[in-house]
C-alpha cells in the first residue's frame, strides 16, 4: 500500500510538471526601446564643458558659468556656489573629518562642532540650519528621516 501511494504521488507530480500552464504556452516578446538622453558624457579639457544637448566641449559664453548639476550654462551660480574656471563650484569646501557623536564638521570648517542652540546639522548640504526639512527630524543634533 505504501509503495502504491508513493508511486501515485510521483505520477501526479510528473503529470503536473509536464503540462504547460497558460503562462508557459503564450509567447512573451519584450521590445526594448532606447530613450535618447540629451546628457553629454564627454570628458572635456579644463575650462570647457559639454552642456545637455551638445556633442562637443565648449567654453562658457561670455558672462556665463557651467552648472554641472543641471548640465547648462547660466548667468549666475546658485546660492552657496561661485564660478571658478567657468564652472559653478561650492563656495566652501566640504569637511571630511570623522566627529564624535553629537558633533559635526560643517562645510568650510576644519574642526568638529556641536550644533549652535536651536540648530541641527543637515548632512545633505553639510551645514547647520534652524530645524530640519519636511520629512526629517533633529536627532542628536543631526537631521534624520522621521
From TrEMBL:
Looking up InterPro entries in the UniProt record yields:
Growth_fac_rcpt_cys_sf
Q: Which keywords belong to this entry?
A: Signal
Protein name according to UniProt: Uncharacterized protein
Its signal peptide is 1-23
Origin superkingdom: Eukaryota
